Amino acid sequence: MNDQLAEYVREVTLHEPEALRRLREDTEDHPHASLQIAPEQGQFLHLLARIMGARKALEVGVFMGYSSTWVALALPRTASWWPAT
User: Fold this and answer.
1) For residue 45, how many other CB atoms are within 10 A of its CB?
2) Coil, helix or strand for 13?
3) Is residue 10 classed exposed, middle or buried when 0-12, 13-18 and 19+ CB atoms within 10 A define those classes?
4) Alpha-carbon torsion (38, 71, 26, 9), positive or negative
């Protein structure tokens, strides 16, 4: 995949929450930024968690929490950690 195709995929299919976009952009200048997943990979993790009906998740090896947040957003709001509405 070249840069033009990657940009097209992001423009057409990516629905990244604002907070995650800011986190990703703030992390781009970090010396270990290559450890962070791409936004379309985060969205895919979110989709997988939703499809499989995940109720809990454990991520080992968290960098800045970007992928963890994508997965957490896929968990049902009935999870014990979710703030009451």
Assistant:
1) 21
2) helix
3) middle
4) positive
Cα(71)–Cα(65) distance, integer angstroms: 10
State the pLDDT at residue 54.
94
Please state the length of the chain: 85
pLDDT in tens, 37-80: 989 999 999 999 999 999 999 988 888 899 999 999 999 987 56
The tokens for 3 are 């840069």
Rounded to whole angstroms, how far apart are CA atoms 82 and 26?
25
pLDDT at residue number 85: 56
For 38, the token pair is 């791409």
- Please work out, in degrees rounded to the nearest 5, the angle formed at the alpha carbon of residue 17 by the alpha carbons of 20 and 50: 100
